[in-house]
Predict the 3D structure of the following.
Amino acid sequence: MVERRPVLNFLAYAVLSFGVLLVALPVYVTFVASTQTFEQIVAVPMSLVPGTELVANYMAALTSGSEQASSAPVGRMMVVSLVMALTIAFGKIVISLLSAFAIVYFRFPGRMFVFWMIFITLMLPVEVRILPTYEVMADLGLINTYAGLTIPLIASATATFLFRQFFMTIPDELAEAARMDGASPMRFFLDVVIPLSRTNLAALFVILFIYGWNQYLWPLLITTDQSMYTVVIGIRSMIAGGDAATLWNIVMATAMLAMLPPALVVILMQRWFVKGLVETEK
Amino acid sequence: MEKRVVFRSRWLPYVLVAPQVAITVVFFFWPAGQTLYQSLLLQDPFGMSVQFVGLENFGLLFRDGSYLASFKVTLVFSVLVAGIGLSLSLLLAVMADHIVRGALVFRTLLIWPYAVAPAVAGVLWVFLFSPSIGILPFWLGKIGITWNHLLDGGQAMTLVVIASVWKQVSYNFLFFVAGLQSIPKSLIEAAAIDGAGPMRRFWSIVFPLLSPTTFFLLVVNIVFVFLDTFGIIDAATQGGPGQATTVLVYKLYQDGFKGLDLGGSAAQSVILMAIVIAFTVVQFRYIERKVQY
């Protein structure tokens, strides 16, 4: 701050508080709805004071889902989402670490070709190649499997670039020392490169976990069986019948459950989240 | 930039890049090639007959009123989301940069919508705006506005714009805050000593120095609208009423998976691919420039 301006200070706090309220409004109403009975919600206007059905609604959602939409239990969906998000995050990190290490620490014929090949995938997001990718998965018999949910999303140009940039900053002396001591490349990779990459790994993990958890279009296509629905897809299927046929209290409890894991990751790992977000986009 | 010290092995580097190359070829290049090839074919939904038609699918698309309409919807949607989203988050970021106490608390309270899936954001807002039970239409009714986004195309667009802006604000906010922090304090102090007030300092110093961040966010937001709003639209309006909120990706999905028009949807994919490639190139040219400074 360069000067004292009480009015400006007041304005700043007022605008920020208003922004926080606007951002929180939909989630607050969702939370309130998830603690009321169906009848309380459809009584216009619904009360904005939390009701008493919190435990009942969440238990109903987790164990049996929305009965009117005959959906799978949300507990099952959470497991599918978690497996999917973790597989995508770890898969992307491992694959990108290995290829970035090869590109930075080896000279081999075809190196630049591989580099450009990975680079081009940046321009082919899943949305623009859905139909043929779906056909490939159907031919391989991977519809309704975890492999089908995750593998097409696992190649990542951004993660590879991030690691490549980072490996470039590791002092040459370390590799030299390792070579002189007779360490194999993989020993150097495991004992020097990985420990040095720790903060990058954490930052990337946060971003990729959220990316995997929030996937929508691809799981929508690749899963036809209720038992393989992710929680994001599950919510969508619960409201498909229109206002009258939607058990809003259960849907809102499910929405809270769907938001909880990624929101916790963002808030608890805020430092790495900010770092990851700013660096993956560079 | 190259490493001076490298390891030697004939086979190890190939083993290391093999997983990524395999996935890239099978799930990126093969489908992308298929898309290009299919966009030149005319085939019936059951694959009984296939005919090579050259660029006919593209010609059909550009004569198809509903495709051109979805182009227009996408453009309007991106202008609104980028315009409103960037202004709001810039305002919040400038305010957060100004205050001293509680800055971290406000940051925490503003960034978590990033974690909400677009489809879930769509569900939250469609519940708030539900014409029969939603709380916002009830309040709007009090001041004489009848809300029904199931019938009114403009209101449907308003709904998906609000949900998208809400989802994007945290992302824009974080980048603006980072951009503001990188502006040298000495410049602003010098201007203050010369007698420039807060508004003058913002428009003459802060805003121009922030333009790389703003431009970057503009591209990111447009790409977000082109690709990631699929979840919001599918959950909130399903492209309706009529075609009022059918963006290009949603049209592609409808024609390909619901309408089984393989050649036409492949042609749409190719056009979308071209647009995404153009944006990526623009983004990278911008980054090259940033590195020089």
